[in-house]
Design a protein that fits this description.
Elements (H helix, E strand, L loop, with lengths): L5 E5 L4 H12 L5 E8 L6 H10 L4 E6 L1 H14 L15 H15 L4 E3 L8 H12 L4 E3 L1 H4 L4 H10 L13 E5 L2 E5 L29 E8 L2 E5 L2 E2 L2 H14 L4 E7 L5 E7 L1 H17 L2 H19 L6 H14 L4 E8 L2 E8 L7 H4 L10 H10 L1 H10 L1
Parallel strand pairs: 1-2, 1-4, 2-3, 4-5
Antiparallel strand pairs: 6-7, 7-12, 8-9, 8-13, 9-10, 11-12, 13-14
Bound molecules: arginine.
Subcellular location: Cytoplasm
InterPro entries: Arginosuc_syn_C, Arginosuc_syn_N, Arginosuc_synth, Arginosuc_synth_CS, Arginosuc_synth_type_1_subfam, AS_cat/multimer_dom_body, Rossmann-like_a/b/a_fold
Subunit structure: Homotetramer.
Length: 399
């Protein structure tokens, strides 16, 4: 079994994870440290990130480009389930954590490490997601979380880093914390914690304020194959490219801002801001397509499972049995979810402009009031008689 002195650290390049490197070596007894930065599209300069970890004392430093995998295997999976946590949040940050956990485990195996580490604090969701992902994939790995045990203030962390020869590049700090990836952007903490504070424009970056959106609407046609987004305006696109274009397009029209109170796994409520135009457009279009091709009873049963799905993802139980069972249900329904939905983007709103599916359950000759109608109206009277029977009986019996 690999030694637990050998550790893979999930590295972001921030002040905290950088301080984790000397902390793991000097306070937690690690002798070999691999810094693993997962590139999910946070827009960092990757070579600089890699070198930063080495300068902080890591023995190895790797950057894994996980953007395609992230969108394809995590983001688009979640779209099949129309997953919105607390009815609003398309899980853009949450979905990244099982992937980072997966990469930690894969890297630990590749580098013969018996431990993994991360820089999450003890108050957030991310520690839950990372710990659970690792524990469910390989329970023999030891999990180290320096920032959960050190009692450093920001100034302490900087002083500790300096003591170990790292001069943290502390730029003038933003009065909030940002988490960015290809699926969306999250802003929390600092000023956001004041519930009476209305976000000013500099909080947002992917979306325009409605006042500055174009005065003419724009249309985009999203094509799905078995529940997976595959084309925009008829052109096949790789997952990462597809979501990037929708983010740009939606953002330009001021779509995708969320300001919500969120119920964290660890029991506290927190206020969170998100920008996720692409994910929200995909879910809206996908829902519409499902309405067109799936029968009412399947749709009705899918709905509560979508809520369950969002919670499982949010809670970090990606590798648990419930997500697997829910995915089996989702995949079974998605075989029929192929077609094209056109959205009209205008002034912070997307509306449905057109729906097309080869296997649509919408049948014009059944629903039309025209003379070509094939619906048998003669059957209606008997249907209503029996359909209303239990209610009539109840009313008779109970007055
Ligand atoms: N509150 C959001 C969530 O739990 C965002 C977390 C972002 N993580 C971060 N370290 N800033 O999904």
């Amino acid at each position: 079994m690999a030694s637990t002195d050998r550790v893979v650290l999930a590295y972001s390049g921030g002040v905290d994870t950088t301080a984790c490197i000397p902390y793991l070596r000097h306070e937690m007894g690690c002798s070999y440290i691999v810094a693993m930065a997962a590139d999910l599209g946070q827009g960092d300069e990757l070579e600089a990130l890699r070198e930063k970890a080495l300068l902080a004392g890591a023995d190895e430093s790797i950057v894994v480009d996980a953007k395609d995998r992230f969108v394809r295997d995590y983001g688009f999976r979640s779209v099949k389930a129309n997953a919105l946590y607390d009815g609003q949040y398309p899980l853009s940050s949450a979905l990244g954590r099982p992937l980072i956990g997966d990469l930690l485990v894969e890297t630990a195996h590749a580098y013969d490490c018996g431990a993994v580490a991360h820089g999450c604090t003890g108050k957030g969701n991310d520690q839950v997601r990372l710990d659970l992902t690792v524990a469910l994939l390989d329970s023999s790995l030891r999990i180290l979380a320096p920032a959960r045990e050190w009692k450093f203030s920001r100034a302490d962390t900087i002083a500790y880093s300096e003591k170990h020869g790292i001069a943290p590049h502390v730029t003038k700090e933003k009065p909030w914390a940002i988490d960015l990836n290809v699926l969306g952007r999250n802003v929390e903490a600092g000023l956001i914690e004041d519930l009476t504070w209305e976000p000013t424009e500099e909080v947002w970056s992917l979306t325009r304020p409605v006042e500055e959106t174009p005065d003419t609407p724009e249309y985009v046609k999203i094509g799905f194959a078995e529940g997976v987004p595959v084309t925009l305006d008829g052109a096949p696109l790789a997952p990462r490219e597809l979501i990037a274009r929708l983010n740009t397009l939606g953002g330009r029209h001021g779509i995708g801002r969320i300001d919500m109170l969120e119920n964290r796994v660890v029991g506290v409520k927190s206020r969170e801001l998100y920008e996720a135009p692409g994910m929200l457009l995909l879910i809206q279009a996908h829902r519409e397509l499902e309405d067109l091709v799936l029968p009412a009873d399947v749709l009705a049963h899918k709905k509560p499972l979508e809520t369950a799905y969002a919670k499982v993802v949010y809670d970090g139980l990606w590798h648990g049995p419930l997500r697997a069972a829910l995915d089996a249900f989702m995949d079974s329904t998605q075989q029929y979810v192929s077609g094209e939905i056109t959205l009209r983007l205008f002034k912070s709103r997307a509306t449905i402009a057109s729906r097309v599916a080869e296997r649509a359950m919408y049948q014009h000759e059944l629903v039309t009031y025209g003379s070509d109608c094939t619906f048998n109206q003669a059957s209606a009277e008997g249907f209503i008689d029996i359909f209303g029977l239990p209610s009539r009986v109840w009313n008779q019996v109970n007055g």
